[in-house]
Amino acid sequence: MTETTVAPHLVGDVWPIAHPGEDPVLYGHVRLTPGGAFQARSLQTFRLV
């Protein structure tokens, strides 16, 4: 292993085992408010409606 290589135990999986459900009605769904575009890494507060 070189100095620029990340140790394998620190690297996440490329394809996670968990997948979204095929039918949103089966698991329920939620709407986030407010909607719109937000600055990345900014502090925001949302409500689940």
Question: Could you please describe the fold and organization of this structure?
Answer:
By secondary structure, the protein is low in regular secondary structure. The protein has one helix and two strands; from the N terminus they run H-E-E. The chain has a two-stranded antiparallel ribbon. The chain is flat and about 50 Å long.
What are the SSEs and their pairings?
Blueprint (H helix, E strand, L loop, with lengths): L23 H4 L4 E2 L13 E2 L1
Antiparallel strand pairs: 1-2
The residue fraction in helices comes out at under 10%
Q: What distance lies between the first and last C-alpha atoms, to the nearest angstrom?
A: 49 Å
Our estimate of the beta-strand percent is 5-15%
Number of helices: 1
Would you tell me the overall average pLDDT?
81
Order of helices and strands: HEE
Find the structural class using helix and strand composition: little secondary structure
Basic shape? flat
**Low-pLDDT sequence parts:** none
Strand order of the largest sheet: 1-2
Largest sheet: 2 strands, antiparallel
Q: What is the gyration radius calculated from CA atoms?
A: 18 Å
Number-wise, the strands total 2
Write a concise synopsis of the structure shown.
With 49 residues, the chain is mostly loops. It has one helix at residues 24-27, and strands at 32-33, 47-48. It is 8% helix and 8% strand.
Give descriptors for this structure:
two-stranded antiparallel sheet; 49 residues; little secondary structure; 8% helix
